[in-house]
Amino acid sequence: MAARAKAGDRPERRKPRKVPGTKLTRAQIDEMFARFEAHDPDPKTELDYDDPFTLLVAEHGGKVPRCREDLEALPGVGRKTANVVLNVAFGEPTIAIDTHIFRVSNRTGLAPGKTPLMVEETLDRVIPERYKHNAHHWLILHGRYVCKARKPECWRCGIRDLCAFDSKTGAPA
């Protein structure tokens, strides 16, 4: 006769933990970016540019600086623009928080935050390293064309099941 296991002998079943600062688990975040990658493996900026100069007009020693602090020292260049230049022109894994990324990060629960800097810091911490370079583009494109501000198109969203947005909308009327 087989001995019965005591309650204390059974392995505990734990709910997956949310990543601190998000409403999602590590597995959900990884799955979110795996789906973005599967849909669009090589996303590109929609900005028109020929080289770093045309991406950012600068008189900074005749060269576009390659560090955020030097970029932000240029007149009219803030953190967002500096991050765009670092990502697009120099291939750095930075994330420029625009209105689309801010909305998608808050709405999905990926990186809830009250300020762009809070959202950026959380995204930098939680996005898996292998997705960081393209994350900026995926999140912007998702915010522009699917997770729109006024009428999100949840019915065609590839990450709908991972999203923390309570008011998911149905198909258009």
3D structure, described in words:
With 173 residues, the protein is mainly alpha-helical. It has a single domain, classed as Endonuclease Iii, domain 2, CATH 1.10.1670. The protein is 39% helix and 0% strand. The protein has helices at residues 26-39, 52-55, 68-72, 79-88, 99-108, 116-126, 132-145. The mean pLDDT is 87.
Summarize the structure in short.
With 173 residues, the chain is mostly helical.
Write down the overall geometry. globular
Largest sheet geometry: none
Total domains: 1
Count of alpha/pi helices: 7
Class from secondary-structure proportions: mainly alpha
Which architecture name does CATH use? Orthogonal Bundle
- The string of secondary-structure elements, in order, is HHHHHHH
CATH class: Mainly Alpha
CATH superfamily: Helix-hairpin-Helix base-excision DNA repair enzymes (C-terminal)
What is the CA-atom radius of gyration, in angstroms?
20 Å
Q: Quote the average pLDDT.
A: 87
Distance between the termini: 63 Å
Helical residues, percent: 25-40%
- CATH topology: the name is Endonuclease Iii, domain 2
Total E-strand runs: 0
The fraction of residues in strands falls at under 5%
Low-confidence stretches: none
Highlighted features:
Endonuclease Iii, domain 2, single chain, 7 helices, 39% helix, mainly alpha, globular, 173 residues
Give me the secondary-structure topology.
Blueprint: H1 26-39, H2 52-55, H3 68-72, H4 79-88, H5 99-108, H6 116-126, H7 132-145
Helix pairs in contact: 5-7
